[in-house]
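User: Some background: our group keeps a shared notebook of sequences we're curious about, and every so often someone picks one and asks for a predicted structure to add to the entry. Today it's my turn. The entry only has the sequence so far, pasted here. Could you supply the structure so I can complete it?
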Amino acid sequence: MDRDPRCRAWARWKYCTHQRYKNMMMQACRRSCAFCVAETHDCKDRVKSRCPRLKEEGYCESTKPDERLSMRSMCARTCNFCRKIETVEVTKPDRRSHCVDTFKACFGWSRLGYCSSNNRERFMREYCKRSCNLCSSIDPEYTNEKCLDNDIVCEALKAQGYCELEDKKKIMAFNCKRTCNLCRRRVGEPIV
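Assistant: Of course. Here's the predicted structure to add to the notebook entry:
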């Protein structure tokens, strides 16, 4: 089951396999990422004639959620999806990363008690460190409160070159300031 209405879009943007977002996607978007356990009692292939070839071509191990869901449906037996609990490598966030909030809304969420909420605590610890007071010290590079990203997709957009595209700079400056290094510096502040 997906816990966020944006899961399908995030899955299309390959967040299910992206190192930075995989933890969040495991928690919030299990269905869209095809991380759910197969619940089938009658383990069979629906398209018997095509399944061996599809397996040979690597579709059973596909990291693309849409292909994975199709293979679960069409070739459950050939791909060994029956009553199998899937293990997915989950990477821990880099502990050396800056202690910042990823979203502008983090402060508001922390005031609503999300830092200690059972179903939101893990997300808040990863994406709202500063607002949840999880910083041992605050990196001076990121002390500008207004220099935050508005959306979780910024890293993916940067990887696709959106920060450098002239026709995208305005929207990226609004939504992804921190990721694209588009924050305004204070007068006299050195450019790093």
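Suggested note for the entry: The chain has eight helices and no strands. Residues 65-74 form the longest helix (10 residues).
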